[in-house]
Write a structure and sequence with these properties.
Elements: H1 5-11, H2 26-39, H3 44-47, H4 56-77, H5 114-129, H6 147-168, H7 170-175, H8 179-195, H9 208-214
Helix pairs in contact: 2-4, 4-6, 4-8, 5-6
Length: 216
Amino acid sequence: MALCLKQVFAKDKTFRPRKRFEPGTQRFELYKKAQASLKSGLDLRSVVRLPPGESIDDWIAVHVVDFFNRINLIYGTMAERCSETSCPVMAGGPRYEYRWQDEHQYRRPAKLSAPRYMALLMDWIEGLINDEDVFPTRVGVPFPKNFQQVCTKILTRLFRVFVHVYIHHFDSILSMGAEAHVNTCYKHFYYFIQEFSLVDQRELEPLKEMTERICH
């Protein structure tokens, strides 16, 4: 019997607090608009398009934060099955291996286990979206000039979570009855990054066959 996703999510203690938008702000209104479109049953390709008159940076910011929340939740549901033993390398099958690099502890690309990579990734993204210099929340404060470049890096790394989950933990997705939910999240993510050309096509190769099957 398929498990209730809410029950699965509630049992996991590894989830970090969700990043939320302040009520009354323009970004909160955009977030509500995006969520309403999702729940209305509209085609996901239509849902990701920039609403007339809205700022593209605001639209991207809202989605980056939402995708971070959703993908963090998806990985969290199967974190217990992704261990140093089962996944000693952050990979997407035998052909793709992802190394971690940052500006602090790992200045050179480092080969890490999947759970270690994921922990560093979620901390790194959380730090960025809570940084007012990168994701400003105050009215009238502009986004930095490199904002879309930062978002490209975030989304590229989040895509790798999908790669690892689909290739190494698909059995867990099935056993939890979460396939439809994860597929919908993936399709939403995929259509968004394609709409705004935010992730290099070469990064999408590991899931190319699956994407062609469920997104076209």
